[in-house]
Design brief:
Distance between the termini: 22 Å
Largest sheet: 7 strands, mixed
Number of strands: 7
CATH class: Alpha Beta
Number of domains: 1
Radius of gyration: 18 Å
CATH architecture: 3-Layer(aba) Sandwich
Bound molecules: adenosine-5'-diphosphate, magnesium ion
Structural class: alpha/beta
Shape: globular
CATH topology: Rossmann fold
Helix content: 40-55%
CATH superfamily: P-loop containing nucleotide triphosphate hydrolases
């Protein structure tokens, strides 16, 4: 199962959600990979801490190989690093990804990520994307089975949702018929404020696929980033850890239901 976490808006919680859901997947015993495609490398630093500064291989080398043809390219596994957390690995990003982008785009390498990830042996792959719809994001949307959209209840983010869903639909139509929108993840939810509640209710009324589990706002997230420990490893009993676990279970359950329905259709 390959999931991409995508929103063209920055600061909505893409990296936070990617890493925390991946950490739960890994803690549940699934072999899990985070693919960080944002040159800012926030997910990489979140999972590797200062170890991110001394990496020999990153996603930059992985993509660079596509531009400089080699008879014997390094296998994708060589660019992947184990995190301190059991079952959890990362294909880390670094700033140099930024410079490669235009070249990769002009040389039509858009399907290469999909080919590489399809050849890997992981139970769950979580792809974090930069806040833009360019080469890396499109590659991720082509490679993924499903797409999660973090949403922070902000009015500008709400307006951007419609364009964003159109963009995903276009990628599905042109490149990846399998891509489904698994849902909108409401993040930084403040249950005591009226406006967020109203926004979420309106999105549901409009028929947008808002997931049941809402992720609360909590300053504990800053500590989690600073200590480079996903919530489940920082404080397993914290409200946010439980919300991430519930969200992960919700995704797994709907995935199972969908797979069953498809099997029935085929039978
Ligand atoms: N549930 C949350 N509660 C409080 N702060 C959050 C939460 N989720 C994310 N943040 C904060 O919001 C900022 C952006 O989060 P991040 O995951 O980096 O977003 P993105 O990857 O979309 O840019 C970070 O400073 C992070 O600490
Ligand atoms: Mg990010």
């Amino acid at each position: 199962m390959k999931r991409v976490v995508f929103n063209q808006k920055g600061g909505v919680g893409k990296s936070t959600i990617t890493c925390n859901l991946a950490a739960i997947s890994a803690a549940n015993g699934a072999r899990t990979l985070v693919v960080d495609l944002d040159p800012q490398g926030n997910s990489s630093r979140y999972l590797l801490g200062d170890g991110v500064d001394s990496l020999e291989h990153t996603a930059t080398g992985f993509f660079d190989q596509m531009l400089n043809f080699k008879l014997r390219p390094l296998p994708t596994e060589d660019f992947i690093t184990a995190t301190p957390f059991e079952n959890l690995s990362v294909l880390p990003a670094d700033g140099a990804l930024e410079e490669l982008q235009a070249k990769l785009e002009s040389r039509y390498k858009i399907y290469k990520l999909k080919e590489a990830l399809d050849a890997l042996d992981y139970d769950e792959i979580w792809i974090d994307t930069p806040p833009a719809l360019h080469f890396y994001t499109r590659s991720a949307l082509i490679a993924a089975d499903s797409c999660l959209i973090p949403f922070d209840c902000d009015e500008f983010a709400r307006r951007a949702l419609y364009t964003l869903l159109d963009n995903v639909a276009e990628i599905r139509a042109d490149h990846n018929g399998d891509l489904e929108v698994e849902g909108i993840v409401v993040n930084q939810f403040q249950p005591r404020a009226n406006l967020p509640q109203q926004v979420v209710a309106e999105l549901r009324e409009e028929g947008l696929p808002v997931l049941n589990t809402l992720i609360s706002a909590s300053v504990k997230i800053k500590e989690s980033h600073q200590q480079a420990k996903p919530m489940i490893h920082l404080d397993r009993s914290h409200k946010l850890s439980q919300e991430f676990a519930t969200l992960h279970a919700e995704l797994q359950a709907s995935q199972k239901a969908r797979a069953k329905a498809e099997a029935r259709k085929r039978a």
